[in-house]
Amino acid sequence: MRNNGGWRGRGICLRRERDGKIQWGVQKEWTRESSGATPPRALTPSARAHGPLLPDPGARGSFNGAAEGAAGGAGGAQWASRSVTSRRREASGEGGGRPAGAGRPEEVLAAGWDPRGAAAHLACSAPTLGDGGGTMPFDFRRFDIYRKVPKDLTQPTYTGAIISICCCLFILFLFLSELTGFITTEIVNELYVDDPDKDSGGKIDVSLNISLPNLHCELVGLDIQDEMGRHEVGHIDNSMKIPLNNGAGCRFEGQFSINKVPGNFHVSTHSATAQPQNPDMTHIIHKLSFGDTLQVQNVHGAFNALGGADRLTSNPLASHDYILKIVPTVYEDKSGKQRYSYQYTVANKEYVAYSHTGRIIPAIWFRYDLSPITVKYTERRQPLYRFITTICAIIGGTFTVAGILDSCIFTASEAWKKIQLGKMH
Q: What is the superkingdom listed in this entry's lineage (predicted)?
């Protein structure tokens, strides 16, 4: 608001569309405050007529001094897109220039002046809150924290180009590495103290496959005993004897169960009706496993530690002791299904054993004990949010470091150029 000889004036923002463009203007409106006052010469009440132009409802209200100054300091519609030369000519009254503040706003627009100028736009966008004025139109772009820099204000350099290419290649390499890790299933192992297979009834399934090339099948038998009082001689359930070397040898295959207590099972001639004079216990163990068979590519455990053990060159009358430490093992796939198996470590010794009658009665002993530690393997895939976080960290960190490096190199090169120019002068 301004007071001019008893008349109070305020600026009104005008806006219209012409040829698909929004045009802005500012007009003064005067109100008499005292009787007898004469309105300013250049701002008669007729200047309030807007014709087809309407005040901008989002920008009405009292204007501050800067806005009114942008409007020309006098009444009428003052448009701010005129050239600097025309404004100077109007101020000096030369030629056919248009006096500041004269005429109607429609005539100003029809005269060809582009009302998109910076001063008129500033006047239309700078309302104050005093004198009951209006509010500034809400612009969602004010939340943009990534302000754009015109391309003409940037300067490309060869060093920056090299750093940018290396940066992109490095990001691509790390991205592919993380993508491979995200796609690949990861197997995580953990240890804990517990009996994993509580539904087994305290039993462990055993699979044995052994060949004795110099012992007849009718002499071969399997005996089982443990600390719970079990003592079984000549176990034949789920077992099979296959003759070898035209009946001179035997291959024994059997599946049986043992209790989850220390004990042993052994291959011997104890179940034979007549004991041979010199039984030959040289052998090859093809398979000895406990629990379910796990065939997982990324799990390299001792599930068949004695597989391939060859004792063909040992003393034929010697007994063999295999001392096993059985470790419960659980494998859980991605669907949550669990399979229970057992790994084991083995130590062995070879000796000649005599009975109470002085006879040599060799046997192949498997003495076992259970470990209280359970090994669990779990299939896992990297979560998507962790993959996205890692990728963002790679991209952001690489660009930040590359930007710091480029800035340091550019600053150093500019400083060196200034030093060289100083030396030349």
A: Eukaryota
Q: Residue 175 is encoded by which pair of tokens?
A: 């991205």
What residues contact 283, with CB distance under 8 A and at least 6 apart? Answer: 210, 211, 212, 213, 267, 311, 312, 320, 364
pLDDT tens digits for range 324-381: 999 999 998 888 888 889 999 999 999 998 877 778 889 999 999 999 899 999 988 8
Measured at the CA of 94, the angle between CA 88 and CA 100, to 5 degrees, comes to: 55
Q: Specify whether the CB–CB gap between 184 and 192 falls below 8 A.
A: no
Model pLDDT for residues 161-211, shown as the tens digit of each residue: 999 999 999 999 999 999 988 888 888 888 888 877 777 778 999 999 999
> How many residues would you count in the chain?
425
Q: Which two tokens stand for residue 48?
A: 């309030």
216: closest CA among 253, 250, 241, 240?
250
Residue 380: which of 178, 175, 192, 184 has the closest Cα? 184
Which residues, including other chains, have CB under 8 Å from residue 323's CB and lie 6 or more apart?
346, 347, 348, 349, 367
Phi, psi of 285 (to 5 degrees): -95, 115
Place of tokens 């890790």: 181
SS3 of residue 91 by DSSP: helix
Are 28 and 95 in contact, with CB atoms under 8 Å apart? no
What's the whole-model pTM score? 0.55
Dist CA 119 CA 138 (whole Å): 20
